[in-house]
Write a structure and sequence with these properties.
Chain lengths: ~250, ~300
Amino acid sequence: MLELRNICFQVPDEKSRSKREIGILKDVSFTLEDNQFVVITGPNGGGKSTLAKIIAGIEKPTSGQILWDGEDITDMSVTDRAKLGISYAFQQPVRFKGVTVFDLIRLAAGTDISVAGACQYLSRVGLCAKDYIKREVNASLSGGEIKRIEIATIMARKTRVSVFDEPEAGIDLWSFQNLIQVFEEMHSQLHGSILIISHQERILNIADKILLIADGELKKEGSRDEILPQLLGTDAAAVSCDKVKVK
Amino acid sequence: MDAIQRELLEAVSGLHEIPTGAYNIRANGASIERNSTANIEIIPKKDKSGIEIHIMPGTQNESVHIPVILSQSGLEEIVYNDFFVGDDADVTIIAGCGIHNGGDAASRHDGLHRFFIGRNAHVKYVEKHYGSGDGKGEKIMNPVTEIHLGEDSFMEMETVQIRGVDSTRRENKAELDAGAKLVVTERLMTHGTQHAESYFDVRLNGEDSAANVVSRSVARDHSYQLFTSHIHGNHRCSGHTECDAIIMDDAKISAVPELSANHVDAALIHEAAIGKIAGEQIIKLMTLGLTEAEAEEQIVNGFLK
């Protein structure tokens, strides 16, 4: 069980002469139960990605606590949280010269996984494994390809908590349908908790719980049936076609 | 061969024992093993130290190993090796030098390799440089490579120096006739107070000749690297040179790419980039459970692979 207690995150306002602080997150508290599927939604710039980075340990909260099965892990490093069982999929996956897709999946799995084993994860995210396994995770991959590889690395980790920051961004419609399946499978097979930041109605639609974060505050929290009807028609729950139109 | 010599041999040529095919193994200033085959003849030079390697026209899929190992501290030598590759031959040449210096005097090997590659021949040339031993004496290597590529021939050169060489100055010159192609890949890592200089001078003399010179390097600690690459487009040709370097700690790196087009249809490109490891790369690998040091090692190893 992962619990966030009164999380605040402030950054200095560079425009202000008086060096005042801007609150990116203001007193956010919630609990991610074991085997729960939670989606965080809300407008851009509302603090969702910062929250995901705070869970992974990439950002440190200005105040507040993060508890893992009751143990305070607020000061724990990124590495130790990863070893504990937290995975984090980047919104904009990182590219490496020389590191291959296989290297990355092998590191994610943490064991001497076989090429065939690694290929299974790629197939699950809709990539033809033999075309990709030896490729470098460099600038030659498209945005959608690297995004799917990122999801495959999280699947390979098989951790108790998996956090995805806008996994659908850059993924085409056909893959999007597969993506939903991937999350459903992960949820049913892994018996781990999944936390996804997303605006997509179809992802919100498979959540156990939905959180709405706006202006750095947790505005709404509740079951899908409770929250989703309130969000439909807003930016927080866009259907794919709406997103295309907006662009 | 003793244990140290065997270790050096393995590091520079991947050999555990005497190879098959043609070879010449040089240890502490003298040739200790040599073998010629029906198509590849290795003969010692008469006027100076070194060998001539004659590869018959049409030789297919054969290899030549010419490793050099120095385990005697304070030994300094200059060796001249000439390769004559016949028309239509297809061969792999594996050179390399390993120095173990357990003493206080500098050990140095300067290998001058000249390649005369016939029409339509295909050569893969691999050289690895490696140093070991914790004596105060420096391990120095100054290889010079001169390449003459005949019409429609192809050469792929892979040069690797990952560990232990204190000082190196590598000079590489190439001249290409019509339709010839040269691909050079350099992999270099320096550490401690090492000093490494690489010079490439490629002349694309023939019509439709092409060259690609790519260097990837990592400089750590207080080491210094200089990479200079000059491509001359003297006919309708295409040339590309690239230097991509990771800088760490208190190291210093200079990259000097240079292009000279002497023909209106010469298409030449250079790229050079130097930078430290991106913080987000380290963080990504830390989210997979690696420590910061392990992440750094993984990124460097991948980069130099």
